[in-house]
Recover the amino acids of this structure.
């Protein structure tokens, strides 16, 4: 959508709204799974539960910013849409590395 209609405000709204909906749905699923620790390991640290929730809510928040920014600067909004997945990749690697370190120490 953004590749074909990259500078159109409507394209940013549709794309951003989709990301907001997906991000909020995923955060809601995580909240449901972690409430009362019913679907997660009992030894999972509370900081990890909170970190994941914040990490999941970053996408909807960044998408709101990008959609608002697209009205003024489509290029800046596109940069936000590119940087957020890079953050997810980097933080995912960090979480994976922290889990591997924790398991090797145990």
């Amino acid at each position: 959508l953004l590749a074909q209609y990259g500078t159109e405000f409507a394209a940013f709204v549709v794309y951003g709204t989709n990301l907001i909906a997906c991000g909020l749905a995923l955060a809601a699923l995580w909240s449901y799974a972690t409430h009362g620790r019913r679907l997660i390991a009992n030894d999972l640290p509370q900081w990890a539960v909170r970190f994941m929730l914040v990490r999941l809510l970053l996408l909807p928040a960044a998408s709101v910013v990008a959609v608002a920014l697209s009205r003024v600067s489509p290029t800046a909004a596109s940069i936000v849409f590119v940087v957020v997945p890079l953050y997810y990749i980097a933080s995912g690697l960090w979480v994976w590395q922290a889990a591997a370190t924790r398991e090797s120490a145990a």
Remarks:
- The chain has a mean pLDDT of 89.
- The radius of gyration is 17 Å.
